[in-house]
Every structure is written in C-alpha cells, then in structure tokens.
Design brief:
268 residues, 0% strand, mainly alpha, Serine Threonine Protein Phosphatase 5, Tetratricopeptide repeat, 2 domains, single chain
Length: 268
C-alpha cells in the first residue's frame, strides 16, 4: 500500500483525534470510498488491543488469534515501503506546522516499527506446526519396504501389501499377522503391522510393535524411532513425539535423521 504525504498526515491527525468536525467528516467519507485506506487505518487503530501504547510490547492479555490476525495485515514489502516513505519525507523541507508534524511522524514511525515486529511474528507463527499437521506432512507410506520381487507374486505378504496400499488396513493386518506367526522375526513385516495398527487407531498395539522392533537386533531397528514419533503425532501428542525425535537425532545414522531435525524445529 502507498499513500501521498497529505494522506499520511490526515491519518495521523485522525488517529490522534486532532481533526475538527468538518475535517473528520470529510476524512471518514474518504474512508468509505477507499477500502485500502480504511483497512490501513483500521489496522493501526486496532493495534491498541495488542500492543502497549508506549513500548509497543505485546500485551500479556493479547491472544494468539489477535496477534495472528494483525500479522496478516503486514508483510515485508509494507515495512520497506513505509521505511522508504520516512526517509524521503525526512529529506524534504516540510511546511507542516510543528504540532501536526509530530503527529504525522508518530503514526508513520509507529507503523514501521509495528510492521517489522508483526512481520517477524507472522513468519514465526507460520513456521510452527501442530502435531496433527505434522503427521499429515511427514507420514509417507510409500517409503515402506516392498515385498514385490520377481517370482514372489504368490507370497501372502505381497497380497497384504496390495491391500495395505488400497487402504484395506484390517485385511492387510490379518495377513501380515498370520505370516509373522511361524516365520523368523522380519522387521519389514513388523513395520507394516505397526502402521496398520496406527491407521486403525490402535495406538497401544502400534507403540508396542515399534518398541519390539527398536529392541530387536535387526539392522532396521532404528526405524522404530521415526514410526513411533508418527504414532504420537497422529494422536496430536507433540510432547511425546518430540521426546522420541530428540532420541532419534542423537545418532546421525538413524533413519530420517534430517527430517527429524527439521520436524523438531517446527514443533518447538
């Protein structure tokens, strides 16, 4: 947004309540016609509900919703534009009376300071993520190992994998459980079993399955950390998910180490 110097002066006088009745009426008529100007004035006025008047610190009783709503009113380009406006005006010889000049620069300077803070707040909020959103973004069952190999089309695990990929988790689980009964412990099968439990919202069995995998002597035991974290994320339990991820990132060779680092930052 960009306004001329005269408009910025009027904004300052209007917000500081220094207009006479005729000037205020004329300015409010202008606000009715100019939606962009009205939005800008409304945002500056509403900042009183979030910021202390003199220090511009966020008030203790300001809600996250209020801050996020105001953050959306400002972007980085607004900060740059307003900052440039101040520099340009300061370099010019102004004929505005001293009293009005003070009000004028007060509102513009405040707007720049607030816009800068709000921009930082905005990006801070946007970088954070809820546990449920994290699950949706980070779970990817396509990365699970495949049982489909040449000459193995009759393998029951292939049938179970197909059912799993079609979203038939209960049927897939039944076959995976049956094949795991008499076979040597197979981490690939256990991953599918754990994820089936997760998708069926049987979180206790999912956790127990991944715990058993983690405590096994198999080469894939470290994958249990990532999938256990996903179980907690699906339950919207960010705290337990972070605890598991913090253990995962202690070893750079652990499965999805880089993603775990990234996810931890978003959950903080």
């Amino acid at each position: 947004m960009s306004f001329d110097d005269n408009t910025y002066e009027k904004i300052g006088l209007y917000i500081d309540n220094q207009m006479n009745d005729a000037e205020r009426t004329a300015f409010e008529e202008l606000l009715e016609k100019d939606t962009e100007l009205a939005a800008f004035v409304n945002t500056l006025t509403s900042l009183e509900s979030v910021y202390n008047e003199h220090t511009w610190n966020v008030k203790a009783n300001a809600s996250v919703t209020e801050i996020k709503a105001l953050a959306n009113e400002f972007r980085a380009d607004d900060v740059v534009a307003l900052s440039q406006k101040i520099r340009n005006i300061q370099q010019q010889k102004s004929s505005i009376p001293k009293k009005r000049n003070k009000s004028y620069f007060y509102v513009i300077s405040s707007a720049v300071a607030i816009a800068a803070v709000m921009t930082l707040l905005y990006f801070s909020f946007m970088q954070s993520i809820t546990a449920s959103d994290a699950f949706e973004q980070y779970h990817n069952w396509n990365t699970l190992p495949s049982f489909v190999e040449k000459g193995t089309t009759d393998d029951n695990r292939v049938k179970a994998q197909t059912l799993f990929q079609d979203g038939n988790y209960q049927e897939a689980l039944s076959i995976f459980m049956e094949t795991a009964k008499d076979a040597i412990y197979d981490p690939k099968t256990q991953l599918y079993i754990g994820v089936c439990y997760l998708e069926l919202e049987n979180y206790r069995e999912a956790i127990q399955t991944f715990d058993k995998l983690r405590n096994s002597n198999t080469l894939d035991n470290h994958k249990a950390y990532w999938y256990t974290a996903l179980v907690y994320l699906k339950q919207n339990n960010a705290e337990n998910a972070k605890k598991v991820l913090q253990t995962l990132v202690q070893d750079t060779s652990n499965y999805n180490y880089e993603k775990a680092i990234e996810l931890l930052k978003k959950l903080e």
